[in-house]
Amino acid sequence: MEYVTKGYEPADALRYFEELSAIPRGSRNEKAAAEFVMQFAKDLGLWCRMDDAYNVVVKKPASPGCEGLPTVMLQGHLDMVCEKNQATEHDFEKDPLKLQVKDGILRASGTTLGADNGVAVAYMMAALARDDYRHPALECVFTSMEEIGLLGAIALDCSDLEAKYLLNMDCGPEGTMIVSSAGGLLIDFEKSAELVPFAGEAVSLAVRGLLGGHSAMMIDQEMGNSIKLMGRVLHNIKKAMPVNLVSLSGGSKMNAIPREADALIAVPAGRADEAIAIAQRVAAEISSELAASDPGFALQAAAAEPAAQMMDSASSDELIRFVYLLPNAVYTMSMEIPGLVVTSGNLGVAVSEGNTVKMTEFIRSSDPTVRDHMADEMATLAEMCRVKADINEPMAGWKYEANSPLRELCMKIYKEQTGKEMEMKAVHGGLECGILKDKLPALDIIAFGPTADGAHTPDECLDLASFQRTFAMVMAVLEALAE
User: Fold this and answer.
1) Do the strands 138-143 and 72-77 form a parallel or antiparallel pair, or are they unpaired?
2) HSE on the CB side for 335, CA within 13 Å?
3) Pair type for strands 423-426 and 388-391
4) pLDDT tens across 332-348, in order?
5) What is the predicted pLDDT for the residue at 155?
6) Percentage of residues in the chain with pLDDT exceeding 70?
7) Beta partners for residue 60, in sequence order
């Protein structure tokens, strides 16, 4: 094939990136990419395995004289987020990405680039193929389905892995080292009610104009949660008069702060205008509170056509009370790392299905005991409101460790190479590091990557100079660990 990155270094790693980019590899469609890596390893004569989740592990023996040194794991994920511009014709199930370079920046034409996390795949392939450097034994772990909940890492069998050090290459920008990440816990709530004939007057309520955002990176920015705001409006109407719910819905993803919510309610005959006035008063209060974070907030409240049925009064009261009281947003902050959210909750989805309302809450935390405490609070509230709570298996977080020889080594090498101090950062988002740390508790972990902007959007791009410098750091760390 003709390589658009010809003339840029490291040439081998960039070739591997381009070859990978010719293979569709959206989440749950990683089979071909996994087979590509497997064949690559077999051609090199290296031990390799692939599991049913299309995780791939490749092992490279230590350089002569380094056999007794601790094993090093290099790790990243095979899958990518598949997004394209509206006018772009591209089938992510079968079409290769169309790469282009301009002014040292690599992009894909009208689609996501897949630098997240094709960068790590290319780095690992180059490290496996090269024989011009000294290194300890390497375990290269290529995981699947990272973008849809770290599912590949969760499914990964680590019983044959011996690594003491882990270099995760799924973070950036260059010069930043991630030292902690949050785990997660998903709770599914379900409230069923008896349906009774509709009585009274109908009022429709709609929360609109919120900005929404990522429930990890933006949870501390006081963004409005549409479902919680709807709960507040319903609670205030219920204080003045009986309210029967017909339907309640909002949000679409567990890991996104919901932007919109809708409700249809029944109020006593002759009181619809009063209910609308209460809703508008509460909306004015919310609008003032969210002026800085969500200036576009709006609540639409209007008389509506009656439905055939509504939820019974007791169930309506319990559901409104539950949504109003459910803990949400930032729960605890770190006292060690300024500005770091330790634990948060996001009520991301509410869906009405017949006589049932289903809701999804996603708790993030780097501290499992605080995570479980928050989950228990929610489950206790659910029990009081006769809401069914199904607590899923937790996704492990990665807690900051004060003593990390690998971190100190990496920071030393970065300063030697660039003359700059590497910035340490903890994130509230989830990384595969937490899953791997839970399975291999002795791991000493760092996470980093080159500068690549616009992840998960068609504007995604990779700085090729940063790609080269970061790969040089990876190789320098491996050589230093061989001393």
Assistant:
1) parallel
2) 0
3) unpaired
4) 998 877 888 989 999 99
5) 96
6) 100
7) 138
Q: What is the mean pLDDT of residues 36-58?
A: 98
Average pLDDT, the chain: 95
- CB hemisphere CA count around 307 (13 angstroms): 19
CA geometry: angle 186, 191, 194, nearest 5 deg:
165
* Six-digit token string for 353: 């299905």
Strands of the 56-60 sheet, one edge to the other: 47-50, 56-60, 138-143, 72-77, 165-168, 444-447, 176-180, 423-426
Reported as a single tens digit per residue, the pLDDT across 162-198 is 999 999 999 989 999 999 888 889 999 999 999 999 9
Phi-psi category of residue 270: left, alpha or beta, with phi > 0 → left and psi -120 to 50 → alpha: left
The arithmetic mean of pLDDT across residues 257-271, rounded, is: 96
Q: What whole-number percentage of the chain has pLDDT above 90?
A: 84
Q: Contact 330/341 with Cβ under 8 angstroms?
A: yes
Q: What is the DSSP letter of 146?
A: G
- Are the C-beta atoms of 326 and 350 separated by less than 8 Å? no
The 10 Å Cβ neighbour count of residue 42 is 12
**Which helix or strand (DSSP H or E) is residue 205 part of?**
strand 201-208
- Residue with tokens 């490279």, as numbered in its chain: 60
- List Cβ neighbours of 72 (8 Å cut-off, separation of 6 or more): 135, 136, 137, 138, 139, 163, 164, 165, 166, 167, 478, 481
Contact between 156 and 141 (Cβ < 8 Å): yes
Give CA angle at 390 (384, 394), nearest 5°: 120
For 95-125, b where at least 16 C-beta lie within 10 A, e where not — what string? eebebebeeebbbbebbbbbbbbbbbbbbbb
At 335-392, the pLDDT tens digits run 877 888 989 999 999 999 999 999 999 999 988 899 999 999 999 999 999 999 999 9
Strands (E), 309-449: 309-311, 329-333, 341-353, 356-365, 388-391, 423-426, 444-447
What ranges in 115-271 are assigned the alpha helix state H? 115-129, 151-155, 226-240
pLDDT of residue 148: 81
Distance (Å, rounded) from C-alpha 64 to C-alpha 39? Answer: 25
Q: Which of 210, 208, 211, 213 is nearest to 257 (CA)?
A: 213
**Among 377, 401, 430, 357, CA closest to 165:** 401
* Higher per-residue pLDDT: 236 or 337: 236
Other Cβ atoms within 10 Å of 133 Cβ, number: 12
Nearest to 228 by CA among 214, 207, 255, 204: 207
pLDDT at residue number 335: 86
Say if residue 134's pLDDT is above 90.
Answer: yes
